[in-house]
Amino acid sequence: MLEITLRHAFPGFMLNAAIKAPPGVTVLFGRSGAGKTTIVNAVAGLLIPDEGRIASGDWVLLDTGRGIRLRPYQRRLGYIFQEGRLFPHMTVRQNLGYGAWFAPKDAPREKMDHVVDMLGIGPLLDRRPAALSGGEKQRVAIGRALLSAPRLILADEPLAALDEERKAEILPYFERLRDEVSIPILYVSHSATEVARLATTVAVLESGQVVRQGQAAEVLGDPAVLPMGAREAGAILTARVVAHHSDGLTELDAKNVPLFLPHIDRKPGEMVRVRIAAHDVMLSRNRPEGLSALNILPGVAQEIHLGEGPGAIIAIETQAGRLLARITRRSVQALELVPGAQVHAIIKTVSVAPSAIGGGGPEKR
């Protein structure tokens, strides 16, 4: 269990946060200025809070009440920054070896060959950083952090400096890191797509406070929790790949509900997470006929969250899982939507972007 309790006063800002999370990837999610990086700095030992406790199991990094304050170099952390921050005069192999050089002699550590294979950086070992793309540099930076035998990995918006193509390249490696490495990961993000694909636990921050925390599907499926605004609302479905069809579609099984999406590069039987954006979901009271949409899921409206403008977010419980729909207040009235109303959620097959689909992660186990 990762435990973080912090209280610290800045001029005009108060951080008062408490987080408890099981093993896996704990994502700090929220807008810029919410306090995410401040928490990471406290965990790293770069900030000593007025009051606080930081522990992972029986390993205590900070306990102001007991006078425990490990210095940064004592904390055994692997830190992944927004930029790779590799040593330019060293090859990739030497950068990786630099991380391993700092690992305590008796510490359990990942094997170099396993890390290189997991991150797909074997062909890069003799190159220098200047010859690497942004995504390649980040993969090497992940490997260097892993090989330092850390007890906790900090990733402070590690994809923020990458374009969409490079983000799509690197996200699968973070998924493998989550699934194949037993080290807890504290990950900072303001991207709903990253959170949906990677998070085991989500802690939503607003103005220095943790306003919601829990499993990714539960938190992102809450229409009252929209840290990045209604335009970024969306929910997660977990599904199994059934088959790839000749017309370019992949068939999924989401709790015995068939879903059809553009081709997914996963083998039949593998589990995937699918983020369905709220603005890509239409609602109908009756099952529609004669539509081009292939995915029509019957469900029940559970919560109706009215925004300050003309929009509304509706939470729908379906057999496949919870969905969110972003519609207008006028549509809410026209459809006579109230909690408990029977509805049909309509999802266009081609509206789900490849970047919104990732490995099933901890929920598949």
TrEMBL record:
InterPro entries: AAA+_ATPase, ABC_transporter-like_ATP-bd, ABC_transporter-like_CS, Mo/tungstate-bd_C_term_dom, ModC_ABC_ATP-bd, Molybdenum_import_ModC, Mop_domain, P-loop_NTPase. Keywords: ATP-binding, Cell inner membrane, Cell membrane, Hydrolase, Membrane, Molybdenum, Nucleotide-binding, Translocase, Transport. It comes from the Bacteria. Residues 290-356 form the Mop domain. The keyword Nucleotide-binding applies. Residues 1-232 form the ABC transporter domain. GO terms for cellular component: membrane. GO terms for molecular function: ABC-type transporter activity; ATP binding; ATP hydrolysis activity; molybdate ion transmembrane transporter activity. It is an enzyme of class 3 (hydrolase). Its EC number is 3.6.3.29. This is Molybdenum ABC transporter ATP-binding protein.
